[in-house]
Specification:
Two copies of one chain form a homodimer. The first copy, chain A, is of the alpha/beta class and 407 residues long. Chain A folds into three domains: 3-171, Molybdenum Cofactor Biosythetic Enzyme, Chain A, CATH 3.40.980.10; 179-247, Alpha-Beta Plaits (2-Layer Sandwich); 252-404, Alpha-Beta Complex (Maf protein). Chain A contains 14 helices and 17 strands. Strand 14 of chain A pairs antiparallel with strand 14 (292-298) of chain B.
Chain lengths: 407, 407
């Protein structure tokens, strides 16, 4: 049992636009027991669409297209789909009513161009799109399922969640889901971890994907049976315990907030080179306000002195990028916000600002807990974005390490 | 002249991992005049790899694989590539020396598993990877080029930038680059823009892709000749002028910083619901420190009162999510940091916290300029992440609008 995803869109091939739909659909379809066999991205061109459908429909139980349904796109892709399945298109009044009602809700007249969206191939089911105007489309031939989804992620996800899941589950009630379990690590490279946890030791029936993230590594175990996967997880937990900070859908920020919440602790931040990214990661988590009070982005030296309250002396003697300044930043923001814990980050993200003693990528972290404060220096590689990202996650992962009592 | 990209990796099909390599390679290859015809993502499986190579090598001038070269991956994919091209693999001592030197630089012993990375198919050129241990590989047959690249973006980009570009340019000196020009808009939906700027008006030889972003729309014009593209841009600039904030690689934050810098103005921020995201966007831009001083994430009410200095009275009378509080936040952070301009954001990002009067997605923005302050209310749709993202960009785009004098 497997699925194929066909992504339609010139813009995906001309670059700059990142396709996030496959990552979503891949995980969801694996959960339903219909893992994705392959996925192809093609131009918005009738011949390319029909060729891709030919290959996919011959090999897969489920074929999904994404994209090519928007109001400004010509109808080429919908027409090519209809033609491939040997269907005529008709103007569906219900869809047209619905499209108009969506515009009316926003006190707008429906642009004539949106009439295209009411064209539906015969024998196709309309999957109403509450998040936009282009409907999803569904067609079934025996036990084979076809779906045409929107390219806009939020619309595509809505159609998947509200229609496709049920249709697939009803059609394939005995499909065996792919079980996936992830261990999140921090502090060791992929090769080092692979030395501690050898592939040969993996129980039968489990596959392992090593997923290096920026500055940390995830181990994803997967297979069709839970028992050997759990065995593999236990084994990994025993071999690489000091480097594990979380499991499955846990994020660094989510894990940190949970640890703080459990102890009724609160957190504040003082960021320089990460410029708000750590606080953004923390507030990505809904309910962050239980433990996170807020903080500062003390980007300029004046801001560090006048608003955060770092002494001129520290800045003059050690500089803003120093262990002393990092520690003081954490202590000051903790005092100002009356939090129980605080983190600070100050460093050189580049591309300018590096010196002989302090190269680009040099970052100092300050931590203040109830009764102590400390600092850590790290040197990160990569460009500005990568250095800032790694530093932001490092700040969170280091406080997690301390709260979890790992060394 | 065209290229095909084959992405190898089970993790890309099992979901959760987003493939950003195609977006990078697609844009770069179009620039070199070898646009991507299609891209396929397959399992790390010898038969799938050989089938994909068969199809691609038959149709494309350039075939690129990404992934399957890491130290913990078994050699299946490299072996499958060698087999497809009818080559033996040999142990390359230079590569092995280099891999060992990379580990030595980090004061580490080379794990034996990394010996795999020194296996190279006969007649393939090694493309040394300064960003990691797995080398890139290159093979040429007449005018057809094959490249095996790493899956890790920073390594893949390095190999592309330092080797592939030159190899491709030398092999296809007359390839005509695809010219792409982008207009960035804000404030109108895709359908509305399409009413103002009709596809029929597009000059011959120009294609247009509508790229809806979160909360804004990009128009990408592309083709092989610059003249009709420039004509199309002029036409668009005349039809939809009030909604255009930038061109090509400009970002909202970059444009705002440029405008501030030109006038020797400075900026500070006070964020609540966006939790640092606006400041993160601003500091993504290198050189942001010329105009950006810093700011606060005033997440808790205590932080708003005690550190930012909002009066209890405002919070008690109007609440933290109000026009009054937004304006006050902007004025206060402007005073504290002595900036010439300030932005504030306060709202309900959800999923909790919505009320009958103030639903989830309600966000107030405060602005303080040299001699005036004002506030704007917006209601955004979507989930927490989407609301926060739209609100962060909106804050920046609104100040741009005011500085550009658009209405």
């Amino acid at each position: 049992m497997n699925a194929t995803i066909i992504n339609i869109g010139n813009e995906l091939l001309l670059g700059k636009t990142v396709n996030t739909n496959v990552a979503y659909l891949g995980a969801e379809l694996a959960n339903l027991g219909v893992p994705v066999e392959y996925t192809i991205t093609i131009k918005d061109d009738p011949i390319a669409i029909k060729t891709a459908l030919q290959n996919a429909w011959g090999h897969s139980d489920i074929v999904i297209t994404t994209g090519g349904l928007g109001p400004t796109e010509d109808d080429l892709s919908k027409a090519a789909i209809a033609e491939f399945f040997g269907k005529q298109m008709y103007f569906n009044d219900d869809v047209w009513q619905y499209v108009q009602s969506m515009f009316a809700m926003r006190n707008m007249q429906t642009p004539p161009i949106n009439r295209n969206q009411a064209l539906v191939p015969d024998a196709f089911t309309v999957l109403r799109n509450e998040k936009g105007t282009a409907p999803g489309l569904h067609y079934r031939e025996g036990n084979k399922l076809f779906f045409a989804l929107q390219g806009v992620p939020v619309e595509m996800m809505y159609i998947f969640e509200f229609y496709m899941k049920q249709i697939i589950a009803e059609c394939y009630p005995y499909a065996k889901p792919v079980i996936q379990k992830t261990i999140h690590t921090h502090g060791l490279s992929e090769s080092r971890l692979a030395e501690l946890f050898k592939l040969e030791e993996l129980p039968e029936g489990v596959s392992l994907a090593w997923l290096p993230q920026t500055g940390r590594v995830d181990l994803r175990f997967y297979g069709y049976d839970i028992a050997p996967i759990e065995q593999a997880i236990l084994l990994a937990e025993c071999k690489i315990a000091p480097y594990i900070w979380g499991l499955d859908n846990e994020t660094p920020a989510g894990t940190l907030l949970k640890l703080l919440d459990e102890q009724n602790d609160t957190l504040s931040l003082a960021e320089s080179c990460t410029g708000g990214w750590v606080q953004k990661m923390i507030t990505d988590v809904s309910g962050a306000s239980h433990s996170f009070l807020g903080g500062m982005v003390a980007y300029s030296n004046d801001m560090k002195i006048d608003v955060l309250g770092i002494s001129d002396n520290i800045l003059n003697t050690y500089g803003a990028v120093s262990s002393e300044c990092a520690t003081e930043m954490a202590i000051r923001i903790k005092e100002l916000t009356k939090s129980s814990h605080a983190i600070s980050v100050t460093g050189i993200a580049g591309p300018d600002g590096g010196t002989a003693e302090k190269s680009i990528g040099t970052v100092y972290f300050g931590f203040a807990a109830k009764e102590r404060s400390w600092s850590i220096k790290q040197i990160f590689s990569g460009d500005r974005n990568s250095i800032r990202h790694k530093a932001s996650e490092f700040a969170i992962l280091e406080l997690i390490k301390s709260l979890q009592g790992r060394k």
